[in-house]
Amino acid sequence: MIRPPSDTTPRTLIDGGSPSRIALNELAAAGTAALLVDCDLEESNLSNLDMSDWRFENCVLKKANLTGATLERAAFAGCRGAFANFTAAQLGEALFQSSDFNNANFGGATLTETAFNGCKLTGANFIRAKSVATSFHETTLSAAILPGFSFRKVVIVRVDFSMADLSKCDFRDAVFEESSLRESHLVDARFEGADLRGADLGGLQLNDARKFKGATISRSQAGDLLAEMGLRVK
Questions:
Q1: Rounded to 5 degrees, what are φ and ψ at 47?
Q2: Within a 10 A sphere around the Cβ of 26, how many other Cβ atoms?
Q3: pLDDT tens digit string along 126-155?
Q4: Which residues contact 86 (CB under 8 A, 6 or more apart)?
Q5: Can you point out the beta strands (E) in the chain?
Q6: Rounded Cα–Cα distance for residues 231 and 167 (Å)
């Protein structure tokens, strides 16, 4: 669910159409929050605008440029934003709900308590993102680039990390439920104390299996890992 706006927050509704940067810049400069519904912002230049507390519902943001934008507490619900550029954007407490931002660039973005729920982030780039308590729920992150992310003590529910770059990620004491690590890249990732019984570990190699020292897996997963190594259990 999209967070309800504050009753005391002035809000301008933009319903449909393709609002220009000039119009949006005027709103941002005035400190007026906006609710954009069914707007076409494909390839729009929204860089460096202060859009704190703005709401985007069912908007098209494909290839939109949001570099350096301030989007604190912003929300994106039902949006389509393939290849959108959030480089160095401020996304503290932002909410992404039921949206498709495949191949989006979040490089260097600030993601403090940012939530992604029911989203498609296939191939998304999070290199050098500043992540603090970032959450992913029922989200596809296959082939995404997430080096150094911390998921320590997080319950990971229905998240697809297949083929993702998870190098140096911290999964210590994390719990996986109906999630996938299939063929993910796990160089220097940590799993001590993690519960992996709810994770798909298919395609992992011997060197990857060693990274799971101290983690809990099921008997069937152990058999599958041994089979991947060419060993048979009788």
A1: -65, 140
A2: 11
A3: 999 999 899 999 999 999 999 999 999 999
A4: 66, 67, 69, 71, 104, 105, 106, 109
A5: 11-15, 33-37, 55-57, 75-77, 95-97, 110-112, 115-117, 130-132, 135-137, 155-157, 175-177, 179-180, 199-200
A6: 27
